[in-house]
Design brief:
Layout lengths: L1 H24 L4 H13 L1 H15 L10 H25 L18 E4 L10 H9 L4 E3 L13 H15 L4 E5 L1 H11 L9 E5 L15 H5 L5 H9 L9 E5 L18 E4 L12 H11 L5
Parallel strand pairs: 1-2, 1-3, 3-4, 4-5, 5-6
Length: 302
């Protein structure tokens, strides 16, 4: 579903920009033609700028390091370059270009379950999937459907993915959740009677304690991700927190334009890793994040 929505919006913006440009160019108004078309195509950068501005203002007394203005500007530029690649190219048109990899994998070597966030699909992981396949590491990348439904609905999808990787490898997998995907993994884990089915859980920019930006969300999952939401309180009550947070590595950033204040993406007792200067989607492609996954699935040298 999200692929079709993003195909529609991407082609709609491009068509609108072209129509605007041609309409005013034919009337000899070249400046209006060019400027208007560029604003239609690159207007999303203004929304990103508003997010980074809110991030800066909301930080207040958050214990995470405060980003400098230069770091925020660089992160804004980085996200402005990364976002179109993900939301206007990879996800709309290549959501099935990288199939899951479960055949002819090494036995007893842990595989990986990849869980995307809100407004994404499995194609956000395409660069990861190519790297994992090249290393012959088993993986399944789920599509979280329905897109705007409750996070609770995704536990069954994650269960099927975990079971598929377990059958292929004979080992408990590493689960990686980006943004809302990390909460979906936590909800799934809360249904498990023990930790036996988890090798490691790695979250990237996950609103473990909600995010300020979710106050504007109107979908069910958006409301669940509000700071102090009843859903988050219920999750914490049912997941046996004290015995499970040692399973987590949580990557977070003081330049995350979606999940802020920054420390909302951390968990007490987890291995919390600060990634300076990285925006929300950009953080997913930082080498230290992928290297942490490899650390848990590849055998130690020697």
């Amino acid at each position: 579903m999200i692929a079709r929505l993003q195909q529609f919006t991407t082609l709609g913006f491009l068509t609108g920009a072209l129509a605007w440009g041609v309409f005013f160019a034919q009337r000899g108004r070249w400046l209006l033609s060019i400027v208007g078309a560029l604003l239609i195509v690159f207007g999303y950068t203004a929304f990103l700028a508003a997010e980074f501005t809110a991030l800066y203002l909301v930080h207040r007394e958050d214990p995470a390091p405060r980003a400098s203005l230069a770091q925020l500007v660089r992160a804004w530029i980085g996200e402005a370059l990364t976002a179109p690649t993900v939301f206007c190219w990879r996800q709309p048109f290549f959501s099935r270009s990288e199939p899951d990899h479960l055949r002819a994998v090494a036995p007893r070597r842990p595989g990986v379950v990849l869980v995307h966030g809100l407004l994404c699909n499995r194609a956000v992981w395409n660069p990861w999937m190519r790297k994992l396949r090249a290393r012959n590491i088993a993986f399944v990348a789920v599509d979280l459907e329905p897109v705007f439904g409750s996070i609770d609905h995704y536990s069954a999808l994650i269960e099927n993915a975990v079971r598929a990787v377990e059958v292929a490898t004979g080992a408990a997998p590493v689960l990686v959740g980006h943004s809302m995907g990390g909460l979906a993994v936590r909800r799934w884990l809360s249904t498990q009677p023990s930790n036996a089915r988890v090798r490691r859980i790695i979250t990237v920019g996950t609103p473990h304690h909600g995010t300020w930006l979710a106050r504007f969300g109107r979908s069910e999952s958006g409301r669940q991700m509000r700071v102090g939401s009843p859903w988050l309180a219920d999750l914490a009550e049912h997941e046996q927190v004290g015995s499970r947070q040692h399973l987590f590595t949580c990557f977070y950033s003081h330049c995350d334009n979606i999940v802020f204040p920054p420390s909302t993406a951390t968990l007490p007792g987890a291995d919390n890793r600060h990634v300076p200067g990285s925006a929300h989607v950009q953080m997913l492609f930082r080498p230290e994040v992928f290297d942490e996954v490899l650390r848990w699935v590849e055998p130690a040298p020697g």
